């Protein structure tokens, strides 16, 4: 019997075939995994896109203060009369009280109030007789000193006025070393005065009746007594009277966290666009002992174009009119947001958390900066 042998198997070919098959199989696995990963990634991407869109929508929903800041009520005749009555100090000599009103005599256009041993605040009206005024032109801060370069606190104190003179005009400027007050004036509406070439809008008025002191002149003294001997902090009665008069509001209720007040602040609308404010040393103004700042605010949006008069070094702080709380109102996140641009003028030496060192009386150019990202 003849036995038929099976064909001989070429082991080398089998190994090559297996090897090739193995490589192909491996390649197929890798390809399948990559394809699967790509499919998974596409699926995840598809799943992520709506999530990202939802997050963006949530962020848009959370963005507050997109409606215009409420407009204010301009000062009424009653408001002006009440303010004139409250600012009842007389830091100038009697000869300068050239305006006789029904209630008392006045320095032309001005009324004053002492707020510390060295500083006072004032209101500058559109009529020489404050009792007959129809509008407020400036708010003012004064610092006791001498008519010298050394005594001038800073550039915003453009005007020096002697406390004792033969008349109001005679009190402007003076001789080197004269005693008096260095004054800052902040315009609170569009106004036109002879010392300006054209009308100006609300701003720190660095050009208000300049009285430059003698260059290099030395000397500084605040120990002298004012004609009314009225220096000193506000009394509790004075504080309460001012709080009652500064009865405006422009934020939502969520920000009125301190016994119905926005913390440390009380506000008074001057025009539909501009307000003035008092910033105290306690969150609840009714418990305050001292006034820290006197300032102004202007309606606008969180853009550099809306910073009043382009004074970004002075109007350092933007505050939204709508927020979940007072802290949440500081600054903006989007140029479409509305609020108030604020300038804070210190009325005493202060040391606040946002200061590297104590700040002197003057515009606080480090007050809680909220820079606009261009």
Describe, in short, the structure shown.
With 374 residues, this protein is of the alpha+beta class.
In words, what does this structure look like?
The chain is of the alpha+beta class and 374 residues long. It folds into 2 domains: 9-62; 69-374, no CATH class. The protein has 3 helices and 14 strands. The chain has helices at 11-62, 77-86, 236-245, and strands at residues 99-100, 105-106, 110-114, 119-125, 136-146, 159-162, 179-187, 203-204, 265-269, 274-280, 291-301, 317-320, 338-346, 362-363. The strands form 3 sheets. Strands 3, 4, 5, 6, 7 and 8 form a 6-stranded antiparallel beta sheet that branches. α2 runs antiparallel to α3. It is globular. It starts with 10 loop residues before the first helix and ends in an 11-residue tail after the last strand. Residues 29-79, 212-236 are annotated as: Disordered. InterPro entries: TAT_signal (IPR006311). Residues 31-65, 226-236 have a biased composition (Acidic residues).
Key descriptive features of the protein:
single chain; 21% strand; six-stranded antiparallel beta sheet; alpha+beta; 374 residues; 2 domains
Provide the low-confidence segments as ranges: 1-47, 56-60
- Mean of residue pLDDT values: 88
Return the domain count.
Answer: 2
Strand content: 15-25%
Radius of gyration: 35 Å
Task: Give me the strand/helix succession.
Answer: HHEEEEEEEEHEEEEEE
Sum up the overall morphology in one term.
globular
| Separation, N- and C-terminal Cα atoms | 102 Å
Structural class: alpha+beta
The major β-sheet equals: 6 strands, antiparallel
Q: Number of helical runs?
A: 3
Helix content: 10-25%
């Amino acid at each position: 019997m003849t036995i038929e042998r099976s064909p001989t198997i070429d082991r080398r070919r089998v190994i090559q075939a297996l090897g090739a098959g193995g490589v192909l199989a491996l390649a197929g696995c890798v390809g399948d995994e990559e394809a699967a990963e790509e499919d998974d990634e596409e699926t995840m991407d598809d799943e992520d896109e709506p999530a990202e869109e939802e997050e963006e929508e949530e962020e848009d929903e959370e963005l507050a203060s997109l409606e215009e800041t409420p407009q204010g009520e301009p000062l009424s005749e009653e408001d002006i009369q009440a303010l004139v009555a409250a600012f009842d100090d007389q830091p100038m000599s009697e000869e300068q009280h050239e305006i006789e009103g029904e209630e008392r005599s006045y320095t032309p256009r001005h009324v004053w109030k002492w707020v510390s041993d060295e500083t006072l605040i004032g209101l500058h009206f559109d009529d020489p007789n404050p009792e007959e005024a129809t509008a407020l032109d400036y708010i003012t801060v004064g610092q006791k000193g001498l008519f010298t370069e050394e005594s001038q606190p800073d550039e915003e104190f453009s005007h020096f006025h002697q406390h004792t003179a033969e008349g109001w005009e005679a009190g402007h400027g003076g001789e080197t070393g004269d005693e008096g007050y260095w004054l800052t004036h902040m315009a609170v509406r569009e106004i036109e005065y002879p010392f300006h070439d054209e009308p100006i809008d609300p701003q720190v008025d660095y050009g208000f009746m300049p009285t430059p002191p003698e260059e290099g002149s030395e000397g500084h003294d605040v120990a002298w007594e004012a004609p009314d001997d009225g220096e000193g902090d506000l009394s509790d009665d004075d504080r309460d009277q001012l709080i009652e008069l500064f009865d405006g509001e422009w934020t939502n209720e969520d920000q009125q966290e301190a016994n119905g007040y926005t913390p440390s602040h009380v506000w008074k609308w001057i025009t539909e666009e501009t307000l003035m404010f008092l910033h105290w040393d306690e969150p609840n103004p009714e418990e305050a002992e001292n006034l820290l700042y006197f300032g102004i605010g202007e309606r606008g949006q969180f853009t550099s174009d809306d910073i009043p008069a382009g004074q970004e070094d002075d109007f350092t702080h933007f505050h939204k009119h709508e927020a979940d709380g007072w802290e949440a109102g500081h600054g903006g996140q989007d140029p479409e947001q509305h609020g108030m641009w604020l300038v804070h003028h210190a009325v005493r030496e202060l040391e606040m958390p946002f200061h590297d060192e104590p700040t002197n009386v003057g515009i606080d150019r480090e007050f809680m900066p909220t820079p606009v990202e261009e």
